[in-house]
C-alpha cells in the first residue's frame, strides 16, 4: 500500500453528532465534506463522541476513498446502559432550547454521571469492532485508549 498523505492539520470529531453541538447532522456532514475538499486527511474520533454519531459521520464522509485517509479512534470509555437506551431520542433532545444555560448544564451533568471507564479486555475488542462498523471500514490507522 502506498504511503498516505498526512495533512498538516487534522480534524477532531469530538463534537460531531453531539446534542451540545449547535450544528445539525446535515451541517456536520457538510463540514466534513469541506474538510476533505481543503485537503484534510487525518480524522480523530472516539466511540463515545456524539454517542457514536461522530464515527458514523466520518465513516460516511471517507467511505468513497477510505485508503486516502488516516482514521484514529478511541475506546476505554462507555456510556451507561441508560444513555445507550436514550440514544434514539437524541433528535427530540436536540429540539430543547440549546442556548439555555440550564439545558446545557443538564446535558453536561448527565454525560458526567453516565460515562465511565471501560478498559478491561472484555470491552475493548467489542468497542473496536463497533467503531469499525460505524466508520464503515475494516481497519483504523490509530487506536487509542481514551483518557
Notes on the protein architecture:
With 147 residues, the chain is α/β, with parallel strands linked by helices. It contains six helices and six strands. The chain has helices at 25-37, 53-62, 81-86, 90-93, 101-114, 121-135; strands at residues 10-12, 42-44, 70-75, 77-79, 115-117, 142-145. A four-stranded parallel sheet has the order 1-2-3-6, covered by helices on one side. The protein has a two-stranded antiparallel ribbon with strand order 4-5. β1, α1 and β2 (42-44) form a beta-alpha-beta unit. The model has no long low-confidence stretch (mean pLDDT 89).
Key traits:
147 residues, two-stranded antiparallel sheet, 6 strands, globular
Strand content: 5-15%
Overall morphology: globular
Report the major sheet: 4 strands, parallel
Going across the major beta sheet, what is the strand order? 1-2-3-6
**What is the first-to-last residue Cα distance?**
32 Å
- Give start-end ranges of low-pLDDT stretches: none
Rg over CA atoms: 16 Å
What's the helical proportion of residues?
Answer: 40-55%
SS-derived structural category: alpha/beta
Q: How many DSSP H or I helices?
A: 6
**Rounded mean pLDDT score:** 89
Order of SSEs, N→C? EHEHEEHHHEHE
Number of separate strands:
6
Amino acid at each position: 500500500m502506498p504511503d498516505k498523505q498526512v495533512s498538516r492539520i487534522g480534524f477532531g470529531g469530538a463534537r460531531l453528532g453531539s446534542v451540545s453541538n449547535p450544528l445539525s447532522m446535515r451541517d456536520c456532514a457538510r463540514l466534513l465534506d469541506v474538510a476533505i475538499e481543503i485537503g484534510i486527511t487525518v480524522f480523530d474520533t472516539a466511540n463515545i463522541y456524539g454517542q457514536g454519531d461522530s464515527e458514523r459521520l466520518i465513516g460516511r464522509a471517507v467511505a468513497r476513498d477510505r485508503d486516502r485517509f488516516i482514521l484514529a479512534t478511541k475506546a476505554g470509555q462507555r456510556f451507561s446502559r441508560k444513555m445507550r437506551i436514550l440514544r434514539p431520542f437524541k433528535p427530540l433532545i436536540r429540539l430543547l432550547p440549546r442556548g439555555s444555560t440550564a439545558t446545557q448544564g443538564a446535558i453536561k451533568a448527565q454525560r458526567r454521571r453516565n460515562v465511565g471507564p471501560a478498559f478491561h479486555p472484555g470491552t475493548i475488542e467489542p468497542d473496536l469492532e463497533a467503531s469499525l462498523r460505524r466508520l464503515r471500514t475494516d481497519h483504523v490507522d490509530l487506536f487509542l485508549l481514551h483518557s
